[in-house]
Amino acid sequence: MTGLFTAAQVRGAERAAMAGLRPGVLMQRAATGLAAVCLGLLGRAHGVRVVLLVGSGDNGGDALFAGAVLAVRGAQVTAVLLAPDRAHADGLAALLRAGGRTGGAESLARADLVLDGIVGIGGTGGLRDDAVALVHAAVAGPGLLVAVDVPSGVSADTGEVAGEAFPAQHTVTFGAVKTGLVVGAGRGAAGTVHLVDIGLGPHLPAPDAEQLTDADVAVHLDPPGAGDDKYSRGVVGVIAGSATYPGAGVLCTGAALRARPGLVRYAGTAAEGVKAAWPEALVTSGRPGAAGRVQAWVVGPGMGTDEAARSVLAEVLATDLPVVVDADALTLVAAQPGLVGDRTAPTVLTPHDREFARLFGEVGGDRVAAARRGAAALGCTVLLKGDATVVADRDGAAFVNATGTSWLATAGTGDVLAGVLGAFLTGGPAAAEAAAVAAHVHGRAGQLAAEQGPLIAGDLVRVLPRTLARLRGADG
Ligand SMILES: NC(=O)C1=CN([C@@H]2O[C@H](COP(=O)(O)OP(=O)(O)OC[C@H]3O[C@@H](n4cnc5c(N)ncnc54)[C@H](OP(=O)(O)O)[C@@H]3O)[C@@H](O)[C@H]2O)[C@@H](O)CC1
Ligand SMILES: Nc1ncnc2c1ncn2[C@@H]1O[C@H](COP(=O)(O)OP(=O)(O)O)[C@@H](O)[C@H]1O
Ligand SMILES: [K+]
């Protein structure tokens, strides 16, 4: 797992680490690591033009010391100081000693690399006007955009951008990954995140949220053993689609079958379509109770929101089985929250932003807090979809998904996610982790399918076996 941390948590760890170190050591580690990443990105230093955007805090200090390292290696380094009388004095002296100089924003027009040291974890509110003007000039220029610790303008804690932010292609972050680099608008502004170890590890508290790695997911993908049969692999029940629109039922059932093949039962009005597409599924057009025993239900995609759908949903939610509540079922729960309020078995709600708003009010800029708010309000697990899907449990535990591709923004991919999630809910991990595993697998399937060009939802189902085989082989 990759821990995600808030600015306050990182500052606390910094204080503890500093207690045993000479002043300035952590900044030297940060700046040396930053310069090494820049050298790696540039391929060489000699003759390369580097421009530093320098605010008056330690973030600017990091940029100045890294600039000094690059200048010693032969780079032409120019520091643009936002507040010349308040720039980090030792950092500026080091840069000048190394042959660097100070200059104006016009240097950005010829930069090979721009280091954004305007503001890091000490930022508050929207980026100020003078900083915004520099960011615009950097974007207009040809340089590779690299943020120091956090792209200026991004909230390190939440990923919110109040106003504008430095649109980094790479972010070199120190000590720990901040939550705001991987979620919401911050994810888009951060580009590729590089973590530089500055020795905070032993001093960091439990993380604010977590990201699963391929290896974390692989432990939940054991192949069947000699003693397994179709029932022991988990029985998923799917209620999705309608006679007129069977697609959601076909996608959801196919995803459940492909994700963790054991047994999938389908109950609903898309029975004919599902039977034709998936002869492996046990299909009934009757009510959920007629489907036979299942270990987890997926209910909602394309099922409609009429009284018949409401009554089917109520029947499923009245069981003591884990349930994935998706799409139309979310609309029904928004109208009647009591449907899930009394459940003790795991319930995972999987809204996109509009569905979330109907249930809990607008998502807002802090997506992790929003998911936590929803989970606490209904005592459920909430999987909030997005380019970085967030999972929050009712106890506050949270995951931010690290996989995926914007090619997933196409109809029906959510139906596939619901089916995959149903499959993982039948065994193994607890609800929140199952949801995080499903989002991870779904994102990897999207990446794999997108290698062949634009994907449609059915492609995700087709590549699921190969996705799982690849993940099973993951060792880190
Ligand atoms: N923690 C660690 O382990 C380590 C931390 N390290 C580094 O220290 C950094 C934190 O440094 P920090 O505390 O000095 O704050 P920082 O991010 O430079 O911000 C303060 C500056 O921003 C300005 N400013 C504020 N808001 C603004 C806005 N909206 N728009 C524009 N400007 C704004 C504010 O201006 P002022 O309010 O003072 O006028 C002041 O100039 C951290 O991110 C990392 O890089 C590493 O060196 C080593 C280990
Ligand atoms: N821009 C994007 N980048 C990455 N993933 C996305 C993006 N847009 C949507 N997704 C993912 O695609 C899926 C869409 O689900 P949903 O909105 O329910 O669509 P549908 O109802 O058509 O199935 C979710 O898993 C979501 O996280
Ligand atoms: K920065």
From TrEMBL:
Signal peptide: none annotated. Its EC number is 4.2.1.136, 5.1.99.6. It catalyses: (6R)-NADPHX = (6S)-NADPHX; (6R)-NADHX = (6S)-NADHX; (6S)-NADPHX + ADP = AMP + phosphate + NADPH + H(+); (6S)-NADHX + ADP = AMP + phosphate + NADH + H(+). Residues 213-471 form the YjeF C-terminal domain. PANTHER family: ATP-DEPENDENT (S)-NAD(P)H-HYDRATE DEHYDRATASE, ATP-DEPENDENT (S)-NAD(P)H-HYDRATE DEHYDRATASE FAMILY MEMBER. One of its GO terms (biological process) is metabolite repair. K(+) binds at residues 59, 116, 152. Homotetramer. Keywords: ATP-binding, Isomerase, Kinase, Lyase, Metal-binding, Multifunctional enzyme, NAD, NADP, Nucleotide-binding, Potassium, Transferase. (6S)-NADPHX binds at residues 58-62, 120-126, 149, 248, 302, 352, 415. Catalyzes the dehydration of the S-form of NAD(P)HX at the expense of ADP, which is converted to AMP. Together with NAD(P)HX epimerase, which catalyzes the epimerization of the S- and R-forms, the enzyme allows the repair of both epimers of NAD(P)HX, a damaged form of NAD(P)H that is a result of enzymatic or heat-dependent hydration. Catalyzes the epimerization of the S- and R-forms of NAD(P)HX, a damaged form of NAD(P)H that is a result of enzymatic or heat-dependent hydration. This is a prerequisite for the S-specific NAD(P)H-hydrate dehydratase to allow the repair of both epimers of NAD(P)HX. The keyword Nucleus does not apply. Binds 1 potassium ion per subunit. GO terms for molecular function: ADP-dependent NAD(P)H-hydrate dehydratase activity; ATP binding; kinase activity; metal ion binding; NAD(P)HX epimerase activity. In the C-terminal section; belongs to the NnrD/CARKD family. PROSITE patterns: YJEF_C_2, YJEF_C_3, YJEF_N. Pfam families: Carb_kinase (PF01256), YjeF_N (PF03853). Residues 10-206 form the YjeF N-terminal domain. Its cofactor is Mg(2+); K(+). This is Bifunctional NAD(P)H-hydrate repair enzyme. It comes from Modestobacter italicus (strain DSM 44449 / CECT 9708 / BC 501). The keyword Isomerase applies.
